[in-house]
Write a structure and sequence with these properties.
Layout (H helix, E strand, L loop, with lengths): L4 E5 L12 E7 L1 H6 L2 H18 L3 H21 L7 E8 L2 E10 L1 H16 L2 H14 L7 H8 L2 E11 L2 E11 L4
Antiparallel strand pairs: 1-5, 2-3, 3-4, 4-6, 5-6
The structure holds adenosine-5'-triphosphate and magnesium ion.
Amino acid sequence: MIAEIIQYSDFKMIPDILPPESHLFLRLQPIDMMSQWKRIGMVSDFTAEFFGQHQNLGNLTKNSVSTVVNELVENAAKFAKPRNGLIDLDLKFYSSLIKIEVRNIVSERMRGNFEMHIKRVLTGDIEKMYFDHLESLVSKADTSGIGYLLMYKDYPIRFGFQFKRLESDKHEVTVEAYLNIIEH
Ligand SMILES: Nc1ncnc2c1ncn2[C@@H]1O[C@H](COP(=O)(O)OP(=O)(O)OP(=O)(O)O)[C@@H](O)[C@H]1O
Ligand SMILES: [Mg+2]
């Protein structure tokens, strides 16, 4: 039996009541992203610039923000159900980190797949999983399944996940990414 509501890892590491220095909330339609993939890049670059301008961030940090937003919004658009459901992108800037929260609706099967993937990543050796994955790519054309491994491996980042049943085949997925800002 799939749980009504379950949280993993660092979910709500920063509670909602803590006021951020900057805040940006965007509501997107998966269909808009799917019909023109370029829009995901536009949204990601915009979010990075938005915080970058105000907080005077370096290019390295802006690139990290853009890459993580890009990956999370792409996932939300790819796996969302129904396709015309909504994606909420909520970004909050705190002095030493940016919290990127993405929420989308998925089917029960998709929720199960995602939970399984997360449990594997949270309990496994990321470096080993990453290189095993690269090796497996040599033998098959399928290149998917590297997004989270890359983010965990390459960035000073922590994640929190929440899965919530809304109806029998309708589940809300919330991903929180806490990206440390390292400026030199
Ligand atoms: N927002 C989401 N909603 C539902 N399922 C998701 C979501 N994000 C990830 N998943 C699930 O977790 C799996 C792993 O995601 P990940 O981003 O690592 O790989 P991918 O998107 O399948 O491939 P890639 O990122 O390499 O293009 C996905 O295959 C999917 O099953
Ligand atoms: Mg992905």
